Amino acid sequence: MAATLSLDCRKTFPGRLTVSVQLELPLDPPLVLILFGPSGSGKTTVLRCLAGLEQPEEGTIRFGQDLWVDAARRRVVPPQARHLGYMPQDYALFPTHTVAGNIEYGLSDLPQVERRRRVSEVLALLQLQGLEQSKPRQLSGGQQQRVALARAIARQPQLLLLDEPLSALDAPTRGALCSELRSLLTRLKIPTVVVTHDWTEALTLGDLIAVMSEGKILQVGVPQEVFSRPANESVAQIVGVETVVPGQVSDYANGLATVQVNGIAMKALAVEGIGPSVYVCIRAEDVVLEQAGSGMTSARNHLAGRVVAIYPRGVMVQVKIDCGFPLTAVITRGAVEDLRLAPGASVIAAIKAGSVHLVSRSVV
Amino acid sequence: MNWIAIGVTVKLAALTSLLLLVIGLGIAYWLSFSRWRWKFLVESIVALPLVLPPTVLGFYILVAIGPHSPVGRFYADLVGHSLPFTFEGLLFASILYSLPFAVQPFAAAFDQVDRRLIEASWTLGQSKFKTFFKLILPLSITGVITGVVLSFAHTLGEFGVVLMVGGNIEGETRTVSIDIYDEVQALNYAGAAKTAFFLLVVSYLVLLCVYAMNRKVWAVWPQR
CA gyration radius for chain A? Predict the structure, then answer.
């Protein structure tokens, strides 16, 4: 049997939430699993159960051959014995220790030479040289985040747990560090579980995604698939972005990027530091449908397409269009009637460049 | 000034605060980290010496360590003499009497330590014991020093418990406060004034240390 991390447990918070999850993560080759969901959906609880900081009342957690939790037999492996790298949301750097002291903290059972080697290795890996003797409070948010990561990976853990690794940073730093984190995780080759509520982070970092809501896992799959083909309405609502297609950035000019999707050129706002391979993400409510042959609008993208299917969604109607790639739009019932939309009808989809989001695509 | 009494007092205070450092850290750790629902029972017992008249506390200690109690008999069999009216008996009483002065600042300092830091330490493979010495103690150092200094100062000035348990044996259990009382009884006000002033100055200096250290604007503890 191939090694897996398997989780099947229940934890109740009286009066608030019952977290009940079943999850399997293959460990070989190591993957990055995203726990995705709105706040209060139980993502952090799952992560803390994996770390051994929270005990499920029922069920088991198994890591490869090791049984970490067996609630029925009151068997729990303490966090100290799980050999983890855990990074909490606010980093929890030790204020009394220097950067080097923080990184070295978990290495006390190694001989000093090896300890030094590991510290300088992760300092180099995370570009923290020169900051060895600084105290955490003297560092910027991005530097603190890197120190916390360095501390977590210095022990060469068998499982890496990251709780909202980028949420404490300001938006511009976050975008740049997200791609950096992805390339770091690819190089480390450690099975990783990342908690996030940001769909761009999920797409960039994840090999697999588990969408959570109200303490339950609703869907597990490859991020692009889950995003573009949500299993049900709740998943679609949580994810909030219906069109996710791979594309290639071909040109940058005047702050706009030109991106090719299946041979169709689209304009999008340029995002710094993302490679030529991207995911093009469009929310359904940002797509405006027009009748073919009508006049100019301010939208930069006008895509000719054909209606594939129409699904009523309450007051709104979801329209699936084929315009060289599958595109989803949400419009009102009235608009469907005015435009005389029906499967097979020709239509123009107008999308503002600002509504076309580019997310760096993980190269595996 | 009665230098012998001062010597006994300083020795008593130093030993008391040293032993309280060991015992108090253990009790404070348990009080701060235990999730036992009846914890407050222990908390109240620890705080009892704050409100109990020293004579009452002294009386019970005297009875507890006297030759008629099992503890007293066990000690007498072990060492060859009984505990009351000896320095060791006095030390034992002092520890109980100053217990809250050590435990409460310790526990308050431990309460301030962010639990997420402790959890991070655990996930980094550090046992609870190692986490205590590598993380919790350095983070609570001002509270720990405050507790030690306060129990030292409190022991310097104790009177009722000493009188009940220690008696008044020169060089053994006669402390400064007893000496002052004796001088006043003998109408030797000049002698009493000198010793009293000495005790006042020392107590003031000790408290000065505590307050200076707990004041963040002072650079007494630049590491923080």
Answer: 23
The separation between CA A300 and the C-alpha centre of its own chain, rounded to angstroms, equals: 28
Phi/psi of residue B125, nearest 5 degrees:
85, 5
Burial class of residue A186 (count of CB atoms within 10 Å of its CB; 0-12, 13-18, 19+): middle
Burial B28-54 (b: 16+ CB within 10 A, else e): bbebbbeeeeeeeeebeebeebeebeb
**Domains (range + CATH), chain A:** 4-242 (3.40.50.300), 244-360 (2.40.50.100)
Average pLDDT over every residue of A227-237:
81
Please give the Cα distance from A326 to A228 (Å, whole number).
9
Q: ipTM greater than 0.85, yes or no?
A: no
Give B3-34+43-213's CATH code, choosing from 3.40.50.300, 1.10.3720.10, 3.30.750.24, 1.20.1740.10: 1.10.3720.10
Residue of A nearest to B117 (CA): A92
Cβ separation A88–B119 shorter than 8 A: yes
Q: How far is CA B18 from CA B95, B149, B155, B156, B172, in A?
A: 10, 10, 12, 14, 19
Distance, in Å, from the CA atom of B13 to the CA atom of B1, rounded to the nearest integer, reads: 19
pLDDT tens-digit series, residues A134-147: 999 999 988 999 99
**Structure confidence by residue, pLDDT tens digits, A21-32:** 999 999 989 999
Q: How far is CA A210 from CA A2, A194, A239, in A?
A: 20, 10, 11
Contact: A53, B127; criterion CB under 8 Å: no
Scanning the structure block, which residue is given the tokens 């100062």?
Answer: B153
Taking an 8 Å Cβ-Cβ cutoff, which residues of chain A contact chain B?
Answer: 51-53, 78-86, 88, 90, 92, 94-96, 105-106, 108-109, 151, 155
